[in-house]
Amino acid sequence: MRNIQTKIFSILFSITLFGSLISCGGPGSDNSAAALLGLDIPASATKTQALTRYADLAYESYNQAATDAGSLLTALTTFTTTPNETNLTAARNAWVVARSSYLVTEAFRFSDGPIDGTTGHCGAPGGSDYSGTDDCEGAINAWPLDEVVIDNYISSLSSTPTFANIYAKNGDSTLASGSEGDTEKVVMTGYHAIEYLLWGQDNTNSGDNTVPGQRPATDFSGSGIPSYRRAYILAVTQGLIGHLQQVRDQWDPAGSGTYRTDTFLTSGNTDTSLGLVFTGLTSFMVQEWGGDRLSGVDSELQEDEHSCFSDTTKADFYYDAQGVYNIWTGNYSIKKGVNISTGAGLVNLLSSKNQGSITSQIESARDTFCINLDNETTDPNYTTSCPGGSLSHRYDQVIMHPADSQHSVLENVGLLINTTLAQNVVRAKNVLGL
């Protein structure tokens, strides 16, 4: 009798322990408890559920980016009305916040969606209508940017510029004359144009305790060029909001005739859409997040820092990782550990044994970058205490000095993103037969 009771107790204890371990894992966990017990938990979501959640995430993410860009415009309106150092700092802080909510949307790229798909949705045909047939990503976040072209344009003005006029100058070879001469760097709109206008050139290039661009508020004070500069930054910020709204509206769950309703979630298109999602993620990892963004590790050039005027490039990497994490887990988050909404992610399409270590690898890539600079105090993940092994030094100083003690951190995270993680996501795609 005692042996039977012991066996029953052991079975009940194992079931209870297993249940508690699994429940602690939560959505998107690596199911290490299941692996420990040699079990394979079935997938917990259908393809349709995962695709619908992806579409909802896209709408929610772009909507937040547009909202925060609106707050940036409010801060810039105050600053351009009263150009002083206090209002300039407030505008820079608003840019930092707006930038974080946009960066988590970058994981939606390369999936033939509204942000950079074959069908463009952005432009500047006139008035307040920012729709068009151009690639939205290029209008919103084109990089690298040759700052001289913006100065050349503003210096050539004799009247207040409109967004349509500014937008038309993207890629204008005449503005590239006398600068780097690369028309692809003639970028007149988007986050980085605003960043340059707020911070100016970063001319500090030595030591770990240097600073970002130091543009004074007086650059926006007075008539002539300062007045054109004021008009320029307001116009491109209004355009930024308009373009973000164009992308957002293509994902609107209440919309009709949109990419969401007519392509992404159409009946019979499930595997195609899901395949594009997985392909987009791996392309983003290899080409952008773990590719071009890390080009400075090899070139050792300060100009290869992505957000080179504000020195906030570590945030670019952090939130790119968070965006991938959001799609993978189905949870929308900007601040670490705080879920704004939850749902079925790509991870939920896989059984526990097929999930591998993708979730923890994304977290590791994200947490490699510590957002700790003095000009990033409004960043949702700003900290004064960087975890061991993370990149706590200034990004531009690390890439410019291969002997920097943290240079290997960037080399290692590059391998993690564009090799290990990308390959594991491809394997997950293959498991699903996409």
Taking all Cα atoms into account, the compactness measure Rg is: 24 Å
Series of H and E elements: HHHHEEHHHHHHHHHHEEHHHH
| CATH architecture assignment name | Up-down Bundle
For the record, the count of structural domains works out to 1
Sum up the overall morphology in one term: globular
- Which topology does CATH recognise? A middle domain of Talin 1
User: End-to-end distance, in Å?
Assistant: 54 Å
Strand order of the largest sheet: 1-2
Q: How is the biggest beta sheet arranged? A: 2 strands, antiparallel
CATH superfamily membership: M75 peptidase, HXXE motif
Helix content: 40-55%
Question: Stretches where pLDDT falls below 50 for ≥5 residues?
Answer: 1-28
Could you say which structural class the secondary elements and strand pairing correspond to? mainly alpha
How much of the polypeptide forms β-strand, as a percent range? under 5%
Number of strands: 4
Please count the helical segments: 18
Mean of all residue-level pLDDT scores: 91
CATH class: Mainly Alpha
Describe the secondary structure blueprint for this structure.
Blueprint (H helix, E strand, L loop, with lengths): L1 H24 L6 H5 L10 H35 L3 H19 L18 E5 L2 E3 L4 H6 L5 H10 L6 H6 L4 H4 L14 H9 L25 H25 L9 H6 L5 H20 L5 H5 L13 H17 L2 E2 L5 E3 L10 H4 L2 H10 L27 H6 L6 H25 L3
Antiparallel strand pairs: 1-2, 3-4
